[in-house]
């Protein structure tokens, strides 16, 4: 507890506040007598009260608003609630409810959370970052709002995303919350409707050119590392081309990660590993087609190629097994509009703008949707994949719920229940032709909190794709036989904390094995990591 704060100041500080949890002695010694109701309550009793409040909220968005206000009031209680039932609360503070929070952000805004930088602060980022009261920041999660989930460019309305992502570092993997700093990096927005909204909270201009964005982010990265030495910068939901360019620019210079590129790739590979164990096949023997060719698709494709190479494939063979399809159709060799990261996947196949035709031509065994386009996986598309394999892998990963390329009902119905399925959000169980399936959720929250915990513990100098592949394997190894029989491709969310600590342990082992850690290797890595984790308690 703060040495200097007393009385109301302690109650008004969300980090020190215990509300009715302050003991009689604390109330007396900290000048709080008379400032609280008589009864001294346990954290558990306070959690019960909060659960009652939440049950009375009419919508998930109302629950989100309540929980974020709770976080501003009493951070310990907030995490105690989230960690009491992650399967219930992850979808409230994160995907999919966070999409509603983003869409209405200027209207539901209550208090600042984290920091808000704008391009107008150019030349002063270090000075402005120094306004944050804590220098021991281990993770910054930063978005421009340029591509929030599948909602497009919503600028400053994307501010809840880094807040929610960092809350999951703690709620899912018990990374201590003091060292986490969410930032909205305001470069403006292409979204004219938002710019015209009187309650919009951001800059009302179009974003600058890529070269200007690079200049701004270069200064930001330098400032962040100067003000918060050793910080890991987590990029989230930037416009796809910015995301790919910035990760390439910084990955060998700073401790940096992009969750949409690397976290998504890792969680997708985790699901593929389990699905292929069910099929008893190798990744290097699959043919994988992507709907969407943006940051998520390129990230997943590149990491799949790395893992195929780990299995013995050549670079050329591995790339030949991956095809992409974007808003302009199949990425074929004649297209002149492809970026260098897309061009390596262009195929010598007839041009087509019809995904079913592209599937017929390429004959994938696996179809991954990262296109933000609901309904893109039609019956003809899914049946086309099923024509090449007994058990098609169908992953419509676009978020939020209404952006998924198909529903689980559709995928199971169109494949006579043979599909190995995962979506970006958790769909409820479905019964098709008398059989009940539990759809998988391939969402990067299965890995990025664990990955963050491993980075927190081992303090590696740099991050690379092999570390994310270790995370994928760590997650996949935790799906037991009974879960697989229900069609699950990921561990149950109920025990997410232990799952993520186990995944973090695998990543940490990998980091130590490769000599990339900057701390000494302990004898028992899991026990050591667990000892570093946060528990919400007074
Ligand atoms: N489940 C998970 O954990 C994650 C899910 N995602 C989801 O993936 C989606 C994409 O993210 P990201 O790659 O970063 O976004 P990008 O904006 O970088 O890429 C979107 C891609 O989809 C393409 N596209 C748009 N419309 C169509 C269409 N009708 N048919 C085919 N392709 C189309 C775009 O083509 P063009 O550029 O030519 O317009 C672009 O290549 C989002 O919905 C996001 O929520 C992302 C990260 C994690
Ligand atoms: C889950 C996530 O990171 C996204 O949809 O962008
Ligand atoms: Mg994202």
TrEMBL record:
Residues 261-512 form the Malic enzyme NAD-binding domain. The keyword Metal-binding applies. It holds the Pfam family Malic_M. Residues 71-251 form the Malic enzyme N-terminal domain. The keyword Ribosomal protein does not apply. Keywords: Metal-binding, Oxidoreductase. Belongs to the malic enzymes family. This is NAD-dependent malic enzyme.
């Amino acid at each position: 507890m703060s040495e200097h704060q007393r009385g109301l100041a302690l109650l008004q500080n969300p980090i020190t506040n215990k509300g009715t949890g302050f003991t009689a002695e604390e109330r007396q010694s900290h000048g709080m007598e008379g400032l609280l109701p008589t009864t001294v309550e346990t954290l558990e009793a306070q959690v019960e009260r909060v659960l009652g409040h939440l049950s009375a909220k009419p919508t998930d968005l109302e629950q989100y608003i309540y929980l974020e206000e709770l976080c501003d009031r009493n951070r310990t209680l907030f995490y105690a609630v989230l960690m009491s039932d992650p399967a219930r609360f992850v979808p409230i503070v994160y995907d999919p409810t966070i999409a509603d929070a983003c869409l209405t952000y200027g209207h539901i805004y209550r208090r600042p959370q984290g920091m808000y930088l704008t391009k107008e602060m150019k030349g002063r980022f270090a000075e402005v970052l120094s306004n944050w009261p804590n220098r021991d920041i281990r993770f910054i999660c930063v978005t421009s709002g340029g591509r929030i989930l599948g909602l497009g460019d919503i600028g400053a309305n994307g501010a809840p995303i880094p807040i929610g992502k960092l809350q999951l570092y703690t709620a899912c993997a018990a990374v201590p919350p003091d060292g986490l700093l969410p930032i909205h990096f305001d470069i403006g927005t292409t979204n004219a409707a938002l710019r015209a909204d009187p309650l919009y909270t951001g800059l009302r201009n179009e974003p600058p050119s890529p070269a200007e964005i690079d200049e701004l982010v270069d200064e930001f990265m330098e400032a962040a590392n100067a003000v918060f030495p050793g910080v890991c910068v987590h990029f989230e939901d930037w416009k796809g081309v910015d995301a790919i360019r910035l990760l390439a620019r910084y990955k060998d210079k700073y401790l940096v990660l992009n969750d949409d590129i690397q976290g998504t790739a890792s969680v997708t590979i985790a699901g593929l590993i389990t699905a292929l164990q069910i099929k008893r096949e190798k990744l290097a023997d699959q043919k994988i087609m992507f709907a969407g060719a943006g940051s998520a698709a390129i990230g997943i494709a590149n990491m799949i190629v790395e893992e195929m190479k780990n299995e013995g494939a050549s670079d050329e063979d591995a790339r030949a097994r991956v095809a992409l399809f974007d808003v302009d159709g199949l990425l074929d060799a004649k297209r002149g509009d492809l970026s260098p990261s897309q061009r390596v996947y262009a195929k010598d196949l007839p041009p087509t703008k019809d995904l079913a035709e592209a599937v017929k031509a390429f004959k994938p065994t696996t179809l991954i949707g990262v296109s933000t386009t609901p309904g893109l996986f039609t019956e003809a598309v899914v049946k086309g994949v099923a024509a090449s394999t007994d058990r098609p892998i169908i992953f419509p990963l676009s978020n939020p719920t209404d952006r998924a390329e198909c529903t689980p009902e559709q995928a199971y119905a169109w494949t006579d229940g043979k599909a190995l399925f995962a979506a970006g959000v958790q769909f409820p169980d479905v019964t098709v032709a008398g059989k009940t399936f539990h759809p998988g959720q391939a969402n990067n929250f299965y890995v990025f909190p664990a990955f963050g915990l491993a980075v927190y513990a081992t303090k590696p100098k740099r991050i690379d794709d092999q570390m994310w592949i270790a995370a994928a394997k760590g997650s996949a190894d935790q799906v037991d036989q009974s879960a697989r029989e229900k069609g699950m491709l990921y561990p149950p969310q109920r025990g997410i904390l232990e799952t993520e600590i186990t995944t973090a342990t695998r990543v940490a082992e990998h980091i130590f094995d490769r000599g990339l850690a900057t701390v000494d290797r302990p004898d028992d890595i899991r026990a050591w990591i667990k000892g570093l984790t946060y528990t919400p308690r007074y």
